[in-house]
Amino acid sequence: MSEAPTPTPAGKKDKSKLLIFLGAGCGCLVLFGAIVAVIGVPALLSYIKRSKAQEARQNLVALSRLVEQECASESVPGGLAGGVQQNGYTGIVPAGPVPPVPPASTQATGDFANDPGFARVGFAPNPVVYSYSIRPIEGGVELIAQGDLDGDGELSLYSVSCDAACHCFSDRMYMENELE
Questions:
Q1: At 148, is the secondary structure helix, strand, or coil?
Q2: Please, which pLDDT band fits residue 6 given cuts at 50, 70 and 90?
Q3: Taking the complete model, does pTM exceed 0.90, yes or no?
Q4: Contact between 60 and 54 (Cβ < 8 Å)
Q5: The dihedral sign for the CA sequence 126, 130, 135, 139
Q6: Do 149 and 53 contact (CB within 8 A), yes or no?
Q7: Looking at the domain assignment, is residue 86 inside a domain?
Q8: Could you give the number of structural domains in the chain?
């Protein structure tokens, strides 16, 4: 003779359904978290790089204005092409790089006050993510910012040219490997 099946208590059946529901819910939550991470983390990293890159643009525009002011002042007669000589250079004094090596993905404090070129124009934007320079070029100077935004050794480069008549062309800023 066959025995009658033992009835399952109502509480056990409800608990197993609840566990299945919770398990499925947790699985969906994990999947949702993974999707957010896959999309969100790269977007966040890109946002951080863009905000760091903004420093170079802003500081080169500020440095351009300082160079134009210094160049137009009486201390540099004849503009960048002539007049005052300091350390063998005529016009604006070469400067940098400050810091000597571009900081690797973090901010650093540069010794701008002890660099004769930067001290002369009054440029001291600390702390910085980029390394800054003023280099003589034919017919003027070039203002340069180099940075390693993510610490991989690959550099981004921004530059602004200033002509012998004391005009810096920050609206025509050169950018290479902007977000590297």
A1: strand
A2: low
A3: no
A4: no
A5: negative
A6: yes
A7: yes
A8: 1
